[in-house]
Every structure is written in structure tokens, then in C-alpha cells.
Design goal:
CATH architecture of the domain at 26-109 and 169-264: Orthogonal Bundle
Structural class: mainly alpha
Helix content: 40-55%
Number of strands: 9
Oligomer: single chain
Radius of gyration: 23 Å
Order of helices and strands: EEHHHHHHHHEHHEHHEHEEEEHHHHH
Distance between the termini: 36 Å
CATH superfamily of the domain at 26-109 and 169-264: Bacterial muramidase
Length: about 425
Amino acid sequence: MRATVIAGLIVATWATSLSANAVETSIRPVVRPDAAVISGAQLAKATSVRGDQSMDADEGQPVNQRFQNWISAFKRRAEEQGIEPQVLEQAFRAVHYDADVIRRDRNQSEFTKTIWEYLDTAVSPTRIANGKSALQKHGATLNEIEAKYGVDKQVVVAIWGLESAYGGFRGSNNVIESLSTLAFDSRRGAFFEGQLIAALRILQSGDTNASSMTGSWAGAMGHTQFMPTSYLDYAVDHTGDGKRNIWGDDPSDALASTAAYLAHFGWTKGQPWGVEVALPDGFDFTQASRKITRSPADWAGMGIRNMAGNPVPDHGKASILLPAGGQGAAFMIFDNFAVIEQYNTADAYVIGVGHLGDRIAGGPAIQATWPRQDRALTFKERKEMQQRLTQAGFDTQKIDGKIGPLTIAAVRAYQVANGLLPDGYASLRILNALR
């Protein structure tokens, strides 16, 4: 889920690389709680540990000792917010500073994948087959959820598949310990302290206990990886047992909670997230922008067709998305694309969810070829591109290594000014041209 409800901003970095035949794991793009860059010296300081009693290079005090002091102060703040002392005592029993959480947070920005590499794993034959099996196994429950919330069941299953490999990898970190470590770390201390308070409210409600509250290193929990604040706002009790249990082996509550979440943000049942389309020769690539919406009929009037050569049916206003520039697949995307973005803002994730759902429902594979000769830019290269664009008069407004709408617009402006294909694709070719 996005920054307002999950652990921070999404950057163009993807999860652990897996082959299509590898054992299934969660394939969500990595969430990054802060876009700030940390120096090598700061990284060494943050992660130089000797078990739980690592020494801070500057302060000369064991990290875990300072962490326990922070917990003592936090408990007082938590009690002021209505958390009961016995809940705090149980939650923080045997909680220690987890250096691995900080190490993983610091290292995220360096790991990159292209969109096609990500989709090779996210929509692998194994994940599709397992999704079809999950759809069949839990068909009755999913039909109930679809009828109640108006969210297409294959999309709910696809999110489940990408978040936890259909429940196979729900995360084993102690959520209280992970969130405490991240809050103590202070880079986004207020955000994670808010998540920690929410996690304690969950414990206080009795929906689960501290030992069962496990999840990812960033605090995302259960079958569909809810952050604590999202859980409090959107989780539901589908089974009727009085608890919103997203952690157990029965996925019913988690799947219903995901549908409730998507419904809250305006899911339109029966509307596709997007449709793969073929662009006509001579297409004006400046029209491929999220800011430009037209009816499918109007796009058809410009020569855009689905891959069968027919106009796309009228599912509402749509934009044209080129996730790999003019050399890869093109999609006509609808409002449901933005609804999935509420779960995770990375385009690759949204396409992964949408396309996996389509494949689970029996739809075809993406037909266009990808520019597989290209490679992803490193974090350092992405920052360099932003710096060079800005210096050349195409201001990206931020030098943060994230290729978002501002950088795409700057790339497109540079392409227009230099007579290049204006697809906005931040490729190595563009960086070399800037150099």
C-alpha cells in the first residue's frame, strides 16, 4: 500500500530476483520509507553490530542499550495515547534492536530490475498456475467477497499472489521489533512510531497476540501485507469469529480485507485495469501521458486498437501507458489502474497485479516484445540522469534517483528538443546522450 498507509515511498526498485521456475516468494517491489541517501560511513555506523550489544561509532554506547532507553520513553508516550501497560509489557518482552532491518532498509535503492524482468517473475508460469489453483480452492469464499465488495476476484487473488505467494511467504519478523527498530532509527521515526502505535492498538483489540503478529521487515503483515494503520482502517472479519485474522492459515479475512480496501478507493467491477494495445505508425508519443485521457472510441479514432485489431470497448476514460518506452508493450489504462496504485504506486506492481489477474482468469500473455537488450539504470545512474537533465535546462525538480512523473516529463522534453522519439523512457541511451 502507498506511502500514506504503507512504509513509505516506492522507488523503481524491485524485490529479490527469481527465475520463472524458482520457488515462489513475495514479489512486491520493495518499499522505501525514505528517499534520503545515506553515506557509506552512516551505513557502517547504523549496521556495525556485535550481536545485540553493537557499539555506536560516535557515541560509544551499545546500540541495544540506547534502543531499550528509547523503548522506555516510547512506552510513556504510548500510554498517553491509550495503550494499556499490560499490552506494552507483553508486546516488548524480548524485543531487541534488529540491525538486519536497518541494513535492508539502507540497501534498497541499489537493487533494480527492468519491467520485463519483474514481470517474468511476477507473472511466471508457476505463479499463474498457483493462482488458478487458489482461485478454484477458495472459489466459494472469493465469490462471496466479490459479491459483497464488488471487486473482481482474480484481482484479489493476484494481489495475494504477489504479496505472499498465496500465503506461502507471509513474513516471519516480529512486527513490534521491526517497527520499533525503524522508529528508533529516526530517518522516518514519526511515521514508524505511528505504525507501531497502530500495531499496539491491534494487540489491544485482541485480534491477535504479539507472538503471532509477524510480517515483513518493514512491518507489512499477513497474506496480503497490510501495514498496521491500513489494518485498523480497512481490515474486516469475513469469517464472523469476532477477529480480523490476516495472519492465520485461513486467508478469508485477508482476502476480504483486500477487497474492502480496493472498494474503498473506488474499484469498478468489470472494468479492466488496462488493455494491451497496438499503436499506429506515426503515433504522437507525447500523447502517452497519464494527464491525457480520452474515451476508447477517441483513441480508436487515432488508430489505436487492441491486439486483435479491434477498437477497445468503452470502459471509461483512459490513458496510454508505455512502461518501457516506445520499444515495448503499450497499454490503455483505466481508473482501476489508479485503484491498484493505492496498494503500491510502482507501475510495475500495478501491471503485475493486473496482468497476473488476467492470466489467472484465462487471458493471454502480453504479446509485444520488450527491449531486452536494455538494462535497468542503477540508483547512481538515475541520480546522474536527473542532474544532467536539470543542468541541460530540463528540470526534474528533485535529484532523488526515483524515475517518477517529473523525471519522465523532463526526459520527454529533452527528447522533443533533440529530435528523439518522445516516449519519456529513462533509458541508458538517454543517459549516454546526456553525457
